[in-house]
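Record pair follows.
FIRST:
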Amino acid sequence: MTTIAPENTEEDSTPTRSEALSKVAPAIPSPVYHATVRDIPADERPRERLEKYGAETLSTTDLLAIILRTGTKAENVMELALRLLTKYRGLGGLLNADFAEISNEHGLGLAKTAQLKAALELGKRLLMEQPDRRFQIYSMDDAANLVRVEMMNLDHEEMHILVLNIKNQLVEYVRRYKGTINSSVVRSAEVFRPAVVRNCPHIIVCHNHPSGDPTPSPEDIEITRQFQRAADLLEIELLDHIIIGNPRYVGMKDYMKW
């Protein structure tokens, strides 16, 4: 009599070759394509739009991207520009940041940092340039806008003085103090000296609050009164004492109602 062996219903537990390989090494992810500026339609790229429509139509990110020219494998130049503007809180922060700090940013280096610093310095000098006519102050907004790019992102206090002629045209831009600004440190004679030397009838004094809050302190009020007394004595008009915050500013003339 023939004996029939029972059918083996258990599954074969021997792993297949592909299963064995998957346990030995993790799966290699498929390469992810990262978009570059070349993927943007030609007529929408920053450089082409600048040529066609003018620099004034471009955003700050666009203009910075044109200066930087190239990005990295992980970050195109537009993303690099936006990251820098965000991290340093705008052009003023980049202007005041240390060269070595910026050059250590991924995607920059010495050459690009030099290009960036040179472009920012040219922009600052353009504000101060006096070719056929001087920069004229028509309002306190004009004065604040002149100094705020440099002052609003400082991590310490500084005092800047705008020396103006009879037409409120800028004759000299003076950086007088760096550090704590209070009545025990600041000497009115030093603040008004540039106007006396230049024989100019008007000045505007500006200082910043590193906290970003331009609300005047009791010291700010006291030092403004000190400046007012000196202005009366020297017969030089103190047009305003402006406190620069980020992004707001406060004019002490309106604040103190003088």
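SECOND:
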Amino acid sequence: MHHRLKIHVNCIPCLLRQALRVANIRDPKLSREETKALLNCIMDVLKDDAILEALPAKTGQRVYQAMGEFLQDGDIFSAVKYKSNEIAEAMYPRLVEKVQSSGDPLKTAVNIAIVGNLIDFGTHLDYDLEQAIDDLQLAIDHFDDLREDLQRAKTVLYIADNAGEIFFDKILVTEILRQFDVNIVFSVRAGPILNDATMDDVRLAGIDAIATIIEGTQSPGLIMDEASAEFKAIYLAADIIIAKGQGNFEALSERPRNENLYFMLKAKCDVMEAYFNVPIGASILLHWKRS
């Protein structure tokens, strides 16, 4: 079923659209000329044919580093991350209540964590979050495998994705710790990249009080070749690895398949739609087994 996930040519205009979005959320907005210069800067990265053989996360890293250098801003999504955390923190008590009143708290906590990946915090939330959790249907659903593996596990490595979303992750981390005798290591990015969660976000969410925190890599998806020796050792020793989001899937699906690796993500584009054979917007809890 699965094949090597290289960057697709469709990713190239998508990355340019992301650069355009960055230009539009700047305060003050970039001028027409400045926006064109930013796009030129990104096209310089994307015209390099070497990206066809590189991990998508590596190309994303190069693109966002080039944006940061052009804008002379080391954290170009800081305002978006702040707003994401603010919105998610306000929702958190309702999410706790939802798990506590559930007939299957672990399943509800997993659904909440996946819904966290569905939300684009750059847009306004004009739907009922609790309804979204109740209505969540997984296009690929290996929840029963996860529950079974958690019963045997001693260590869990949880690789986070976005700011804001990590409040939803905290719900799942808390429930795993409540039900199972495990230690959890929670991984965030090693520095600002896109709207991904970093050490500042994890402290704001209070996850450092319940789990061991480790930094991965400063890339939109964990690039193992750039990870520290400490991270690699934890990755190899973990009984279960839970990785959130498309970026982490694109990067880690390149690793040898492990019985203990789980991906939670939303299929956000036509490349993922074709790869998984699911519709865009579909929710996935995938046990990345050896075949």
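COMMENT: The chain has two domains: 11-71, 78-287.
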